[in-house]
Amino acid sequence: MKSPLISIIVATYNSSHVLRYAMQSVLDSDYQNWEMIVIGDCCTDDTEEMVLGFNDPRISFSNLQQNSGQQAKPTNVALGKVKGEYIAFLNQDDFYFKDHLSKCVVEIMQSQAEFMIVPGIKISPSTPQDLENNSFAAEMYAVHPHGKFSPYIESIASTWFIHHSVPKKIGNWKMEKDLYVTPSQEWLFRAHSKGIAFHFSRQVGVIIIHSAVRKGFYTENSSFEHDYFFTRIHDLAFKLRLLEKAAVKSSSDYNHQVFKTRNNPIRRMIATPFHRIMKSFGLHPLNFYLYMKWKKKGGYIAHLKSNAEQPKVDKDNQKS
Predict the structure, then answer these.
(1) Backbone dihedral region of 142: left (phi > 0), alpha (psi from -120 to 50 degrees) or beta?
(2) Taking Cα atoms as reference points, which of 92, 56, 55, 93 lies closest to residue 75?
(3) Choices 3.90.400.10, 3.40.50.2300, 2.40.128.20, 3.90.550.10: CATH for 6-319
(4) What is the pTM of this model?
(5) What is the rounded average pLDDT for all residues in the chain?
C-alpha cells in the first residue's frame, strides 16, 4: 500500500462534539493523500465510536490507557506512528480551510523548508447574539514579523506543517509539568534554536476556536460557535468577511500599541538584552514572565484548564 504524503496528528480528549468538525474539515479537503492519526488521552465519552464511524481506512484511532491531562503525551505517541513525508497537526477544536493542505504541500516544497507556519484566523469568544448580529471578533493569528521567527508570537500546532525529519532532530514534546511555557511553544522554540529551516506562509489556512479560553467549554457537549463557523467554512464570501474583520482588528491593535502604549519603547530597551541572554542559554524568553505570573511550571496551562472546566453561569437565571 502506498504511503500517504501527509500524516495529520489529532490529539483529543472527551470532545467528540467538536472533534467531528475538525476531522470533517480534513475529509472535505481538496487534497486527499493523507493519513489521520487520532490519539485519545484516555477518552471516556463516545470519541472512539464517532471516529470509527467515519469508516475511512486512512483514519486510525488509539486511546491511551491513562489520562495525561495534556496534549503532549498523545502527540508524542502519534509522532511514533507517522508514515508521511510531511506532518500536519490539527487541534480538536480547529478547522482547516478546504485548500489548506494542497497549498502547504506546494509551498513547503518550493521553499525547501523543514518547518512551515501558516497564519490562521482566530475567533474571539462569542455569544449566539454576536453571531446572529455579525458582531463577533476575529483576528489574524501566528503571523511572524517580516517572515522571521519570533518566540513572542504564539503559533499553536494547527498552524504547523513540517517535514517528517523534524521530530527526529529535536525530540519529543516535553510535559507541561516541566515547563513554564506551553509544550507546543517550547517545541517550536526548540526547533528554531536547533537551526531547523523555517518558512512563514502568507496564505491563511486555519480557523482557530481556542476552547481553553471559553469558560465552561469542557463541561459542555455542544458548541454553537463550531456549529456556526463550520457550516460557513467553504463559503468564500464568508472567508473574505473574516479576513476583513481580522485586518481591521490588527490595524486597530497596532495603532493602539504605537500611539497609546507610551512606555513600550522603554520596556523593549530593558527587555531585549535580557531576552537575548535567555535565548543564548536555550531558554524561551517568556519563561521569566510566566514564572512571575504563575509561580510554577505548568501554571499557565492549569489556569486555562480551570477556566474551561468551570460551568457556565446562566446570566438570565442569575438576575432572577
Answers:
(1) left
(2) 92
(3) 3.90.550.10
(4) 0.83
(5) 88
